[in-house]
Specification:
Length: 319
């Protein structure tokens, strides 16, 4: 990141994101919750499953692919993990009933990883089974590097039986060069992202041209192996390279972007006839998600101030 004051804002916001006391305070405050939710609404479709499904329906009608996530992470008690798993199962059933061909995405720490990896494994299998019955796919998100090994381990246990499960990899971690080569041997789709978490400098590359090069090298590896790939970025330079290299001609490749971020880029790629997936979230646990979106791109704080005052609704009309 060229601008040092921007990079300081990013670091401060990433620290705020990790502050669990602040998160709990805001989520429970009758004053702060609605105020900040009006900011989060740019990135989150709403608090309820119905709102997520409604946005999914609107965007699939326009010809986009979608992912849906019931937002949450780091669930600390078993009952809550089971409730989250049940919500995902219900979401899949509703997608099936309403004919919404959505990919379902989630953090393993939302459904058990922070309690016991075995619980995450069992819950993942149940969700994967329901999705398989409905012809839908799942995508596991990638969390902080301290969890990478356990996330990959649960993924590998499930994916041979449930090939409809995919995995997200973060280009900014040095280890991903080896991980991607290993994971090509598994049938699940790969979603490649730059990485949203602040990590120790020794294990990662920060936002830079070097990271963009690494991202494209990883794309090259997946494409040359004909592996299903979601290129998940809002970076037009990345897409330009991918288009120039002719990678979108492969039926296994798609672009994926987060709802509320660069809708004009989504629209442009979509108009060019390229496959574009929009990642939709819903739920009340939007605090960490909002912090990440502001930290990734501090100019979003200007929009946040406008949203505080004006409170735009139905953001999907921008697509
Ligand atoms: P950047 O270099 O960060 O940004 C490139 C350009 O994109 C910027 O100059 C700006 O114009 C635009 N841009 C980027 N971010 C924003 C923003 N927030 N608001 C407005 N404009 C923006 N990360 C994980 O660590 N784990 C995950 O599981 C994960 N899943 C993801 C799933 C999807 C579908 C996507 C799109 C991202 C996911 N991320 C995940 C986040 C990802 O790691 C990056 O932090 C995020 O995508 C920003 O990086 P970038 O590739 O857009 O490039």
């Amino acid at each position: 990141m060229e601008n040092s004051s921007e990079s300081q804002v990013t670091q401060a916001l990433q620290l705020i994101a990790r502050n669990l006391e602040m998160k709990e305070y805001i989520q429970q405050s009758p004053e702060w919750y609605p105020l900040l939710f009006s900011v989060a609404k740019r990135f989150v479709t709403g608090e309820t499953r119905e709102e997520g499904l409604f946005a999914g329906h609107q965007l699939t009608q326009k010809g986009y692919r979608v992912s849906l996530e019931f937002i949450g992470e780091n669930t600390k008690c078993e009952e809550e993990c089971i409730r989250a798993k049940e919500e995902f199962v219900e979401l899949i059933k509703q997608c099936g009933n309403q004919g919404i061909d959505s990919r379902i995405s989630f953090d393993l720490s939302h459904i058990g990883l922070s309690v016991d990896p075995e619980l995450a494994y069992l819950n993942l299998r149940e969700i994967a089974n329901e999705a398989k019955l409905r012809g839908l796919s799942l995508m596991i998100s990638m969390e902080e590097s301290a969890k990478t090994d356990s996330i990959l381990s649960v993924y590998k246990q499930v994916v041979m039986e449930y090939t409809n499960v995919g995995i997200t990899l973060q280009a900014h971690l040095h280890r991903t060069v080896d991980d991607v080569k290993e994971l090509l041997q598994y049938p699940g789709a790969i979603r490649l992202v730059k990485g949203a978490f602040q990590e120790p400098s020794g294990i990662c590359i920060s936002r830079s041209e070097k990271l963009d090069q690494r991202f494209l090298e990883l794309v090259d590896i997946c494409i040359s192996n004909n592996h299903p790939l979601s290129i998940a970025s809002h970076d037009d330079k990345i897409y330009q390279q991918v288009i120039e290299r002719g990678y979108f001609q492969s039926p296994h490749v798609e672009a994926e972007m987060l709802y509320g971020i660069r809708p004009e880029l989504c629209k442009h790629l979509h108009k060019e006839g390229l496959p574009v997936r929009i990642y939709l979230t819903y739920g009340t646990e939007w605090y960490l998600y909002l912090c990440h979106r502001l930290a990734e791109y501090p100019p979003n704080i200007y929009d946040a101030i406008t949203d505080l005052i004006k409170g735009e609704k139905n953001y999907f009309q921008h697509y």
